[in-house]
Amino acid sequence: MMKKSISAALATTVLVCAACSSPVSVEEKTISLSNKGKAVALLNSIETGDRGAVAYVNPDKYTQHNLAVADGLAGFGALLQALPKGSAKVDIKRAFQDGDYVFTHTDYNFFGPKVGFDLFRFEDGLIVEHWDNLAEKAAPNPSGRTQIDGPTTVIDSDKTEQNKALVADFVDTILVNGDFAQLGRFIDKGDANYLQHNTGIADGLNGLGKALEEMAKQGIKMVYTKNHIVLGEGNFVLSISEGSFGGEHVSFYDLFRVENDKLVEHWDIIEPIPTKDRWKNNNGKFGF
């Protein structure tokens, strides 16, 4: 009970400070921005220190799925306090909205150079839940592509559900069930037809095949056991799955760009899931 009281008090204090520091009222700001805009503002505040952005989070209901962060606004505040002063950098490359969800793809300096996907769920215009997948920033892959470069513009908004269904089918058929004979239904041959941003894989089906062959030689298995959710906006679709990589329990975040009913570009982050004794909240990595 004491812990909850302290958390609530901290959240209230932060919100009061936010209201005092902003020339526009919290209520006016909350109404004027889209949910996508609010999520972007909250992430940018990690670098800028904009206290007003915390007003987009529901102080009484904020469920955290980053297992290294304590639940609620208090956990978020403690994380920011632990950052070395002036070290945080946030460069959001992509932001998408699907119903009550907003997901972003960001180039970070966050306890060191990182790349991350963040996912927020909204209720009544306020953020009530957060998931993410983070990885260390790496050198360009064999095709010279980075974890974050490439197209950012959303098109084909009218095809969102169709594109989500395509990715869901791909994840189930290829990644979960391993029916690689069906790859041609999803990806055209030719390196230029499938641009790859995974740090260790080159473009095209050839690059994917070579990477899988090399992993097999080293006894490394990549196993998708369950797809938890597929979200999208237009030609960009994010799949969040669970499985193992090299025998380690992991979370797979795969972002695809779709063009003419084919997968033409792929970004991903694979993050190890810590053992439960190391969790700072009890919400789990998924919970959709």
From TrEMBL:
The record places domain SnoaL-like at: 46-130
Q: Identify the stretch annotated as signal peptide in this record.
A: 1-26
Q: Which domain of life is it from?
A: Bacteria
> Know the name of this protein?
SnoaL-like domain-containing protein
What keywords are assigned to this protein?
Signal
Q: Where are the transmembrane segments?
A: none
InterPro entries the UniProt entry points to = NTF2-like_dom_sf, SnoaL-like
